[in-house]
Write a structure and sequence with these properties.
The complex is a heterodimer of chains A (301) and B (416). Chain A is α/β, with parallel strands linked by helices and 301 residues long. Chain A contains 8 helices and 10 strands. Chain A is globular, with a radius of gyration of 19 Å. Chain B is an alpha+beta fold. The chains are: A alpha/beta (301), B alpha+beta (416). At the A-B interface, α1, α2 and α8 of A face α2, β2, β3, α4 and β9 of B.
Chain lengths: 301, 416
């Protein structure tokens, strides 16, 4: 009997590669939704492992709110140059200019919710029949029940009541015209698994994931990066803080956490510690993170 | 560190929610939104401790609202292992969800209420475990605190279960007396049951042999995608991408390509800038062959000295998963790994009453029905029997009218 080294990250990786190749085999016009966040960056590495030395059988699609961290855009452009794959950008600004969506007003205005319209328009325009996303089942309760191949109607809606049974490692990607499938290759990964994989694979990340000095204001109990995209008034006091971001999204709705973590090892230690510390001690962080993920669920993916 | 996938079937009344809640809580694996619910909830146990069942409340809420009750996947990790739980409801109307959850599991936890012993539901869950070929079974005799931690109550229940296990040909069964509510024998061994000499549940889960990587000689790799860069530098490059279902492929192994029957030899195995000498079950790789043979998605590369069966007429167990009943007069699509072809259910041999295990004649198959059928396919399938090779012995049925997955198939024999 031969023995070989096949640990949990290898198994998660092999499963994700299998799923990506099923997308290639089963769909005519797939796309990979790229947000610039760690989960979609992980997907890009997995796609390289699935299809190199060939090209990806799909373009990357970025829905640009126009309110991104510059670091994310720089990272995106450098990455595209490195991997030599096609990038399609769906612009929320364009959706606003065309009158398809209306910019929110008020102190908590954000373009996060507007992304959905731009995403759906982009899917329609390019006739994508499958969109690969980096959502994970450990994010929250509803997501825990979502399939790896998750069928959406022509309005982009997920109907939990109409989910297909998903058995063994067999994925049914058959759809009617107008429908499309969201595919989640890293469904079975946890946040910690993603970080451990990034460390193992030595994957570079946008610098905002790591501790840095930044001017912030406090909004609804959360630290927000001071930026022209935030509707600020005299009540907002700008303070310089040592922070990092746990998720990457629109500047107007992505909260920072105070952190000294400058290396991936530090981040993994930070996440591990927040799981084993006195329960509730880091409640605020945890709740804000879950809320962030919720926004992601409602919008991008 | 590796992964253990297990499935739990049971109803709220069995203490399943409390058991899973206890495992998640005691291994610090609670999600932020649930933690908040837990801390702010007024729901407490009689003795004032936290009601851990709140952690799996997703399912309870669904039931109260009368919406679909489904499989929920949960994750936790210890220093020894990563665990994936397929959490499924246990009532008979959710049989298809249990089958779904069980299909990817290596281990099943069956909960028995110590006050009630082996009941109809226990038989049903155990039958599904045997049908889906789950290798390890842990029978947790729960609520031991309600029977004064009595050894004789425990012994009587396991004696009864052993008869059932024999009947169902369950080979590897472990019995653990627990109280999920009080935490007895879940993470730590209980001081209240010194007569029990085995391990705690978590300790057992941490060390049970996962063996999800089948080491048999049945080397099989369905081709998912052909990689042809067609660049100047890689003009003749032709790699077959897939995930090894079972067995091991090594350099220079003689292989057969099905359904064509063509022969070749493995020239190179590739995995992202590496060229390993072997590809093992579970790994996603690229295989290169010495000969120029015509291979596309849906074909399977197999070990030439251990061929699978090939047939257009297959006897299989079927679990029906759709609200619309099986129609033996229409064509369905069968998906067997990367291969799809048209098919018909040509005969219903019997249905099983999954509460009593009795077989009876039937001419219809409705939601949650399970039984034996003969399936006739347009193209021959290259398959193994489910009991020999789960990954190459299973398939799904798709209704082309709705595109829904309507049936789960486990191959039992090629029909001569």
């Amino acid at each position: 009997m031969s023995t070989y080294n096949f640990d949990y990250l290898d198994e998660l990786e092999a499963e994700a590669i299998h799923i990506l190749r099923e997308v290639a085999g089963q769909f005519e016009k797939p796309a990979l939704l790229f947000s610039g966040g760690k989960d979609s960056i992980t997907l890009v590495r997995l796609a390289e492992k699935a299809f190199r030395p060939g090209k990806f059988p799909f373009p990357l699609v970025h829905i640009d709110t126009g309110h991104n961290f510059q670091e994310t855009i720089d990272y995106r452009d450098q990455m595209i140059e490195r991997i030599g794959e096609k990038l399609i950008v769906g612009s929320v600004q364009q959706s606003i200019d065309e009158g398809k969506v209306v910019e929110q007003t008020g102190k908590n205005a954000s373009r996060n919710a507007l992304q959905t319209v731009t995403l759906l328009d982009t899917i329609t325009k390019y006739e994508f029949d499958a969109c690969i996303g980096g959502a994970r089942r450990d994010e929250e309760k509803a997501r825990a029940k979502e399939r790896i191949f998750s069928v959406r109607d022509e309005f982009g809606q997920w109907d939990p009541k109409r989910q297909r049974p998903e058995l063994w490692n067999i994925y049914n990607g058959k759809i009617h015209t107008g429908e499309n499938v969201r595919v989640f290759p890293i469904s079975n990964w946890t946040e910690l698994d993603v970080w451990n994989y990034i460390r193992r694979e030595k994957i570079e990340l946008p610098s905002i994931y790591f501790s840095h000095q930044r001017d912030c204001i406090t909004r609804n109990g959360q630290l927000m990066a001071a930026s022209p995209f935030l509707n600020m008034d005299d009540d907002d006091i700008v303070i310089n803080k040592q922070v990092r971001f746990r998720t990457v999204g629109d500047m107007s709705c992505t909260a920072a956490v105070e952190s000294e973590a400058t290396l991936i090892d530090d981040i993994i230690a930070e996440i591990s510690a927040s799981k084993i510390s006195e329960r509730g001690a880091r409640m605020d962080d945890k709740v804000s993170e879950a809320a962030m993920e919720d926004r992601k669920k409602g919008g991008y993916f | 560190m590796n992964i253990l996938k297990f499935f739990t079937a049971g109803s709220v009344d069995d203490g399943k929610s409390t058991l899973i809640g206890r495992l998640l809580y005691d291994t610090d694996s609670i999600l932020a939104d649930q933690l908040e619910a837990l801390q702010s909830s007024n729901r407490k146990n009689d003795d004032g401790t936290i009601d851990l069942a709140i952690l799996t409340d997703g399912l309870r809420a669904e039931r109260e609202q009368g919406i679909t009750i489904d499989v929920a996947y949960k994750y936790f990790q210890t220093e020894k292992r990563k665990f994936i739980i397929a959490d499924t409801p246990g009532h008979i109307q959710y049989t298809r969800n249990m089958v779904t959850g069980a299909s990817t599991a290596n281990l099943a936890i069956i909960l028995v209420d110590a006050r009630n012993g082996v009941v109809e539901q226990t038989i049903r869950h155990s039958y599904l475990v045997s049908l889906l070929g789950i290798k390890h079974v842990v029978v947790c005799i729960n609520k031991m605190d309600m029977v004064d931690y009595s050894e004789s109550v425990y012994t009587n229940i396991i004696d009864r279960y052993k008869t059932l296990a024999q009947q169902l040909k369950l080979k590897d069964v472990t019995y653990i007396p627990v109280s999920a509510l009080k935490g007895d024998n879940i993470v730590q061994r209980s001081a209240r049951m010194n007569w029990y000499e085995g391990e705690s549940l978590l300790h057992f889960l941490e060390k049970v042999d996962t063996d999800n990587l089948d080491q048999s000689q049945l080397a099989r790799m369905p081709v998912q995608w052909v990689i042809r860069p067609q660049t100047e530098a890689l003009h003749d490059y032709r790699g077959y991408a897939g995930r090894v279902l079972s067995g091991t492929f090594k350099l220079n192994d003689k292989v057969t390509i099905l359904p064509s029957g063509a022969s070749s030899t493995i020239e190179k195995i590739e995995f992202f800038e590496q060229a390993p000498e072997a590809a093992h079950a579970g790994q996603s790789v690229i295989i290169h062959l010495k000969d120029d043979v015509d291979i596309s998605r849906g074909d399977t590369i197999v070990n030439a000295s251990a061929l699978p069966q090939e047939s257009k007429l297959i006897e299989a167990d079927l679990c029906w998963m759709d609200a619309r009943a099986l129609d033996t007069s229409i064509m369905y699509v069968i998906q067997h790994n990367s291969k799809t072809t048209k098919c018909k259910i040509s005969e219903i041999l019997h249905k099983v009453d999954i509460n009593t295990l009795e077989k009876h004649q039937a001419d219809e198959f409705r939601l949650n029905d399970i039984g034996r059928v003969i399936i006739k396919t347009a193209d021959a399938l290259a398959f193994d029997l489910y009991d020999d090779n789960r990954a190459n012995g299973s398939a799904i049925l798709i209704d082309s009218r709705t595109n829904l997955t309507v049936g789960a198939l486990m191959f039992r024999a090629a029909v001569e």
